[in-house]
Specification:
single chain, 202 residues, alpha/beta, seven-stranded mixed β-sheet
């Protein structure tokens, strides 16, 4: 699968950060100097760079070597411009299910968790990283997505997702289905869930 990512990232070149990120940052409010944010499955680095520019300490993680390379380039550009201190940003290649995450006030994952080698472990890691009052912002595939059953892809039913969210305060749980091509122009039926959830303050 790693060989397919460069073409995907090329197709998305120059895109804006996903709207889910803006909504998540509206919930968190401005970060303090020590607030960590994790971009779990950072892809081309667009969201990680937006988080860093907004003042977060950022750990960006991806299993794709090309994604990590692109993310590092964006973060290094912010450092070179004097907008971010180098010790406040990191891009790391790792399995999403196995990475050691810092205690974070925001954990973001856009369309990446379905590709984790162990979704349950990756989800547990994301939840476990949240500090009290921390926000989990995730887009994940539903079971009616065309990629259900494809090797390396894990999809979930609504009931499964609701169980995964048990104990969190769900602020948004939006389900969508549509037929539209992928970024590479391949016809596809999409079934997605977009989630904003809060770890209770205490």
């Amino acid at each position: 699968m790693d060989d397919a990512w460069p073409a995907y990232y090329d197709a998305l070149a120059g895109r804006e950060p996903r709207p889910l990120l803006a909504r998540a940052m509206t919930v968190t409010g401005p970060p303090s100097a020590d607030d960590h944010a994790v971009d779990l499955g950072c892809g081309d680095g667009t969201e990680a760079a937006a988080l860093a520019a907004a003042g977060w300490r950022v750990l960006a993680v991806d299993g794709s070597a090309d994604g990590v390379r692109r993310t590092r380039a964006l973060l290094e550009a912010l450092v070179a411009e004097g907008r971010v201190e180098p010790h406040r940003v990191e891009a790391r290649r790792a399995e999403l299910s196995a990475v050691d995450l810092p205690a974070s006030r925001l954990v973001l994952s856009c369309f990446a968790l379905p590709f984790a080698d162990d979704l349950a472990a990756a989800w547990a890691g994301a939840r476990g990283a949240l500090v009290p009052g921390g926000v989990l912002a995730v887009t994940i595939f539903g079971d009616r997505d065309d990629w259900t059953g494809e090797p390396g892809v894990t999809t979930v039913t609504r009931a499964q997702l609701e169980e995964m969210l048990d104990g969190l305060e769900v602020l948004e749980l939006d389900e969508a289905e549509e037929d539209r091509p992928t970024a590479l122009g391949v016809a596809k039926h999409w079934h997605t869930y977009e989630v904003l959830a809060l770890r209770p303050p205490r």
